Amino acid sequence: MTSDPYQDNRGNRDASVVNQKPPSTLKGYGTETKGHPDARTGEPYLIGDTMTGGYGTGADILHECTIAVDEGQIAVIVGPNGAGKSTAMKAVFGMLNVRQGAVRLNGEDITRLTPQARVAKGMAFVPQTSNIFTSLTVEENLEMGAFLRTDDIQGTMDQVYELFPILREKRRQAAGELSGGQRQQVAVGRALMTKPKVLMLDEPTAGVSPIVMDELFDRIIEVARTGISILMVEQNARQALEIADKGYVLVQGRNAFTDTGKALLEDPEVRRSFLGG
Ligand SMILES: Nc1ncnc2c1ncn2[C@@H]1O[C@H](COP(=O)(O)OP(=O)(O)OP(=O)(O)O)[C@@H](O)[C@H]1O
Ligand SMILES: [Mg+2]
């Protein structure tokens, strides 16, 4: 389909994975994928569509901002500090009232739903700050992530421990005693405990070393390959766009550039203004 805006392969989808869904230790995390974009509407799986809004009665922070992600794909939002990246994520997750525009999940208008109702629909969000319970153990953090579930969570917990083996080792330790990279693993693991269809991550690699960043990105790619959509904000723009199917550059609450990750990396203006040349 020529209308498929996501047809280009990114670095996260080498020839062996495209349309194949290879066996994975994470299989069964999400629901089965149905192909993308939606066959009827041609719309991405999750979209915050031309969102305008701000905090409370304050001035608008977002101005007709659109961010979206398709099933099993990785969409990355980059842009300068204060551009509204976190605000856009909060708007998509229902933590901010959008005055105009809409949020749709699998074709359903969820604009007025609470964050908790969105979790029940398959959305998980790891915020930029305060994303773990530091006084609880690693395992208790994971259990908290599953608070909405009534079924047996042990299988999912095993999958999280397979994805992040260090967490199994440290499962009885207070999460606050972990390193920055390990804490981010707890935060991502906690989000995965809801068995989400969409995983939203606000700067998952903040404050970690380049090696830990690479490892986290590898794990995120692994999660996406199980069919879970990833919508992610990243400061490490170049590295993040390398694994992105789709990239959004936000500036002052507006979409400045939107394209495949690869195209953005090659765009001279994007490189000069946002990627350090
Ligand atoms: N809770 C809040 N109440 C009022 N204004 C806020 C709030 N959070 C953020 N803002 C304002 O919204 C604007 C965008 O902030 P936001 O946190 O979305 O930027 P960002 O792109 O995520 O930046 P960073 O890269 O530093 O994380 C800023 O001007 C900020 O001051
Ligand atoms: Mg932010």
Summarize the structure.
The protein has 277 residues and is α/β, with parallel strands linked by helices.
Question: Would you kindly provide a written description of the structure presented here, covering whatever features stand out?
Answer:
With 277 residues, the protein is an alpha/beta fold. Helices cover 31% and strands 21% of the residues. It has 10 helices and 10 strands. It has helices spanning 85-93, 115-120, 138-145, 154-163, 165-169, 180-192, 210-225, 237-242, 261-266, 268-274; strands at 46-54, 60-69, 74-78, 100-105, 108-109, 123-126, 198-202, 229-233, 246-251, 254-259. The strands form 2 sheets. A 6-stranded mixed sheet has the order 6-7-8-3-9-10, with helices on both faces. β4 and β5 (108-109) form a beta hairpin. The longest helix has 16 residues, at 210-225. Residues 1-35 have low confidence and may be disordered. It binds adenosine-5'-triphosphate and magnesium ion (MG). Magnesium ion (MG) is lined by residues 85-86, 128, 202.
In round numbers, the mean pLDDT is: 88
The unreliable regions are: 1-35
> How many strands?
10
Q: Which geometry do the CA atoms define? A: globular
Largest β sheet strand count, sense and barrel closure: 6 strands, mixed
N-to-C SSE string, H for helix and E for strand: EEEHEEHEHHHHEHEHEEHH
Radius of gyration in whole Å, from Cα? 18 Å
Q: How are the strands of the biggest sheet laid out side by side?
A: 6-7-8-3-9-10
Query: Could you tell me which ligands this complex binds, including any ions or cofactors?
Result: adenosine-5'-triphosphate, magnesium ion
Helix % is 25-40%
Estimated share of beta-strand residues: 15-25%
